[in-house]
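Field notebook, page 163. I keep forgetting to write these up properly, so this time I am using the form the group agreed on. The chain and the ligand, guanosine-5'-diphosphate, are recorded exactly as supplied. Prediction of the bound pose follows.
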Amino acid sequence: MLPLVALVGRPNVGKSTLFNAFTRTRDALVHDEPGVTRDRNYGYCRLDEEHPFVICDTGGLSDDEEGLAGATAKQSRSAAEEADLVLFVVDGREGPSALDQTILKWLRKTGKPFFLVVNKTDGLDEQACVNEFARFGAEVVLPIAAAHQRGVPELLQQILPRL
Ligand code: GDP
Ligand code: MG
């Protein structure tokens, strides 16, 4: 079985955009409206042909545990639980949010290894974006701009030895 990497994070941070960058597809729906990915969506990452892995996109964890958002949150949790490594995606433009803190707490409880991926750093000071998330205490923090494929090779280099 191939190793599994799960993308988690609140809606609209760019998880699906990153999924598409990893799989080189447009399979994941990227949308301006938060919460468009409701189910788990699996794809192959073959950016390094010798070390393929499966990547799972999720709908994003939101505050609202009711109804659709609740089902989406469950999907994110299941994805993280079955994953070998979790990529916790946050928005470098908006900085840390209360919801990010909630997700961080939950992620720590799962005991899963995770990297903090600071997306949307295009046009921004990458180091400043990363520093804003320093108190999250993640062992690996990487600035990327998924929409421009920036930082994706560097992220891949960090992921592969962990699978
Ligand atoms: P998801 O809800 O976390 O899956 O987020 P999406 O991948 O659907 O992206 C949400 C929005 O953020 C879309 O409008 C994307 O075009 C935009 N976005 C994603 N990645 C980047 C990036 O690297 N830079 C910028 N500026 N926008 C991005
Ligand atoms: Mg999405």
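OBSERVATIONS:
- The radius of gyration is 14 Å.
- Residues 81 and 110 are 7 Å apart (CA to CA).
FOLLOW-UP: compare against the apo run.
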